[in-house]
Design goal:
Elements: E1 10-14, H1 19-30, E2 34-39, H2 42-54, E3 58-63, H3 69-83, E4 88-91, H4 106-134, E5 137-142, H5 155-175, E6 180-187, E7 190-191, H6 193-196, H7 205-211, E8 217-218, H8 219-231, E9 236-239, H9 241-252, H10 254-269
Parallel strand pairs: 1-2, 1-4, 2-3, 4-5, 5-6, 6-9, 7-8
Helix pairs in contact: 1-2, 1-8, 3-4, 4-5, 9-10
């Protein structure tokens, strides 16, 4: 399904080689947008761009590491130079580490924070000034339902997404006077490689997957919902329904919300593989 709001618009999508980013790029191109897909996965980018071309869309591949500020700077400046403007930035690249805080290394923390948070900060840092000079533009930051209702067992991911949620609201207040819109998407589980390819710390992936009782949103539907609400310039985009419930509990019944999280931890510990010397 195409969306006329994106016809002839110039869009950057980070994390565009797979999952939600790839699908957002595909739907943008199907709507007539000119899309720059950015990712570190060169083969995945080539496949995504080829798929768009086969369906009559326009997309270019940009080999970009969002944790490398210089790489993001080149992406922003080259896109603006080639197309004359940047209408949309979809800050989407992300990774996750599942496990208890006591089992995580500092390297795992840094990986998630660098990709998820600083990757989006880098995008804002280099694209926002271009949009200010233009007098228009729209920055879309992909956070998570966990960014509004933080739960346990993926804490670096949760920390990064809470930060993205706050960053987006602060940016929206500053950007409005310059004609720049901001949206932050806070979805629940989406059927993407990020979820399917989880590599938990000290636990079997199959056990962790069985712990997730909620039905993931198909990636096509998730992208369609995000694009439809971005087109209407919604600041906060939340779906599906259970995310609204969790946000309500977190805000108005925090003690209950913590107890529910503690139960999730108890269930996880039934199949957690304790490292040598760990008695718990």
């Amino acid at each position: 399904m195409s969306n006329r709001a994106y016809r002839d618009k110039v869009c950057i999508v980070t994390g565009g080689a797979s999952g939600l980013g790839r699908e957002i790029g595909r739907q943008l191109a199907a709507s007539g947008a000119r899309v720059a897909l950015a990712d570190v996965d060169e083969a995945g980018l080539a496949e995504a761009v080829a798929e768009i071309a086969r369906n009559g869309g326009e997309a270019k591949a940009a080999l970009v590491d969002v944790t490398d500020a210089e790489s993001v700077r080149r992406l922003a400046e080259e896109t603006a130079s080639e197309f004359g403007r940047i209408d949309y930035l979809f800050n989407n690249a992300g990774v996750a580490v599942v496990g208890e805080i006591r089992d995580l290394s500092l390297e795992q923390w840094r990986l998630v924070i660098e990709v998820n948070l600083f990757g989006e900060i880098n995008g804002v840092h280099y694209v926002y000034p271009i949009m200010i000079r233009q007098g228009f533009g729209h920055i879309v930051n992909i956070a998570s339902g966990f960014g509004m209702a933080p739960g346990p067992l993926a804490t670096p991911y949760v920390a990064s997404k809470c930060a993205i949620f706050g960053l987006s609201q602060a940016l929206a207040a500053e950007a409005r006077a310059f004609g720049v819109a901001v949206s932050v998407a806070c979805p629940g589980f989406i059927a993407t490689p990020l979820v399917a390819g989880m590599k938990p710390v000290n636990a079997d992936p199959k056990d962790v997957a069985r712990r997730i009782k909620l039905e993931p949103t198909p990636v096509e539907r998730a992208a369609r919902l995000i694009l439809a609400r971005v087109a209407r310039k919604r600041l906060i985009i939340v779906f599906p329904g259970y995310v609204h419930v969790l946000i309500f509990l977190h805000r108005f019944f925090p003690a209950l919300f913590v107890r529910l999280g503690s139960r999730e931890v108890e269930r996880f510990r039934r199949f957690r593989k304790a490292p040598s010397g760990d008695r718990a």
